[in-house]
Amino acid sequence: MRMLKGVRYTAVVLIAVVLALVGRFALLQPETSPPSPGGPFTLVDGQGKAVTDQDFRGRWMLVYFGYTYCPDVCPTGLQTISQALRLLPSAKAEKVQPLFISVDPQRDTPEAVGAYVQAFDPSMIGLTGTEEQVAAAAKAYRVYYRKAPESGRAADDYLVDHSAMTWLMGPDGRYVTWFAHGLSAEEMAAGLARLL
Ligand code: NI
Q1: DSSP codes of every residue in 28-60
Q2: pLDDT tens readout for residues 64-88
Q3: Residue 33 forms beta bridges with which residues?
Q4: Ligand 1 mean position, distance from CA 93 (Å)
Q5: pTM across the whole model
Q6: Predicted confidence (pLDDT) per residue in 96-117, tens digit
Q7: 67 DSSP assignment
Q8: What is the 35 CA–ligand 1 centroid distance (Å)?
């Protein structure tokens, strides 16, 4: 009887130790995994007003990085975002703030990005900033961009290579998912409809 009690006691202690270790491991997990894309940014909108990621808390953000001189990739990407939002029921579309962040602050003035995005979607916000502000935002979102100065004839005539995915961030500003460039508006809308 006493031995049985001892075995039972040992079993309870063992289970407690295992649970404590599992709990500790589970708690440590988020810190050991790599950080998700996204994070704080401070940029400038089409009216020249300072805008931060905090301004969009409570709304979903669709974030696309590009530049207004982009010959075809950005126009396609922004058209897809705009069409996808129009395919969604308006109650869902209204929860989403599409953002276009310039990776070409040298040519993309606040006025230029503001006017550019209006041509695609009146609800879209165009953002630019200083070289440092743009670089920090791109780094946070793991977006690659590189000016190709050899591509044009004049100093201000160049292409910019850049990542062209669309990031979906939740109302708390955290990363939810991303949409690859080349996805159709229908596919993006279906993905958004499931998540929103
Ligand atoms: Ni582009």
Answers
A1: HHHHHSPPPS----EEE-TTS-EEEGGGGTTSE
A2: 999 999 999 999 999 999 999 999 9
A3: none
A4: 24
A5: 0.82
A6: 999 999 999 999 999 999 999 9
A7: -
A8: 26
